[in-house]
Amino acid sequence: MSEIKTVGVVGTGVIGASWTALFLAHGKHVLVADPAPDAANTLRAHLESFWPLVEQIGLSSGASLQNYRFVGASLGEHYGEVDYVQENAPERLDLKKKLIAEIDSKTRPEVVIASSSSGIPSSQFVTSCKHPERVLIGHPFHPPHIMPLVEVVGHPGSSENAIATAMQFYTSVDKRPIHIMKETPGHAANRFQAAVMNEAFSLVSHGVLTATDVDACITTSLGPRYALMGPFLSNVSGGGGGKDGFRHLLEHLGPAVQGWLKDMKDKQISYDAETYDKLSESVRKEQEIFDIKEVEKQRDELLVRLLKDKKTASAIV
Ligand SMILES: NC(=O)c1ccc[n+]([C@@H]2O[C@H](COP(=O)([O-])OP(=O)(O)OC[C@H]3O[C@@H](n4cnc5c(N)ncnc54)[C@H](O)[C@@H]3O)[C@@H](O)[C@H]2O)c1
């Protein structure tokens, strides 16, 4: 991979601004484009609010909040200067198709074009590209200046070289890329999130738990465990930790889990106004207890501490 010094960030809303902060923290120069009338000011405000946490996470050599330039509605005459593109425009196929075709026609053919898209597979928006092999998804977990995961997903025509470049690039800016080998709706992390949300909604809708207790159930059990050990290693551990621990746990608890899964399927909820009313009522009561702004602030501070501490634990990924 030739060195990536300058990153083009196209679209600087919630995700683009956060990517910009991350790239700056790792010593990159960033050229940013967005057609919104106040985009330059909004970006500046976002970057200034992100920077104290970004500094706490740690800056690479050459990192500076000054190393970005907002260049206007599009990268225009600057396309030739970028070594990597991170696209973060709204989640609309017509828009992504047109925009990715423009980026493809103006950047050097070896430059990887990564889209942050959460749901549109890149095979759907490379149809007008001359060099579709360098287009892929680089999907962050919000907010990318803090959360380590990036899901790299090619389309059937993405080159191995482009995938390898994206994986190396995200690793070099301290992310934890995973390669999703087949285009899959929702990629991976959001599918896990959807499964958990579905069960949370079901338990509240069926009067089993309040929203407050669902949240406590997760933050005091699976949440902290999964921050340190994923579901597979957790099963190895739950099965006694031996060589056959994983298999032992499946054989031991598998039949019971099948029964729970059947019950969960039978109690599948419908996503309609009545369900939303019921859920909203329970969440409103939870919001009377918690000050969300304070929770978010403390969450970010603790997350940064956790992520830093994890780096000192050699056995933990
Ligand atoms: N918000 C999330 O939690 C999240 C997480 C991961 C990925 N994503 C993905 O990131 C992308 C951006 O989402 P977001 O939440 O930042 O949206 P957003 O609405 O906050 O930002 C989109 C930005 O794109 C700009 N834009 C509009 N047309 C454009 C164009 N032609 N060229 C360049 N910029 C243009 C808008 O002015 C806006 O600033 C989406 O594909 C979304 O699926 C979002």
UniProtKB/TrEMBL annotation:
SUPFAM superfamilies: 6-phosphogluconate dehydrogenase C-terminal domain-like, NAD(P)-binding Rossmann-fold domains. Residues 6-183 form the 3-hydroxyacyl-CoA dehydrogenase NAD binding domain. The keyword Manganese does not apply. Pfam families: 3HCDH (PF00725), 3HCDH_N (PF02737). Keywords: Oxidoreductase. InterPro entries: 3-OHacyl-CoA_DH_NAD-bd, 3HC_DH_C, 6-PGluconate_DH-like_C_sf, 6PGD_dom2, NAD(P)-bd_dom_sf. GO terms for molecular function: L-gulonate 3-dehydrogenase activity; NAD+ binding. It comes from the Eukaryota. Residues 186-253 form the 3-hydroxyacyl-CoA dehydrogenase C-terminal domain. One of its GO terms (biological process) is fatty acid metabolic process. Belongs to the 3-hydroxyacyl-CoA dehydrogenase family. This is 3-hydroxyacyl-CoA dehydrogenase NAD binding domain-containing protein. It comes from Zasmidium cellare ATCC 36951.
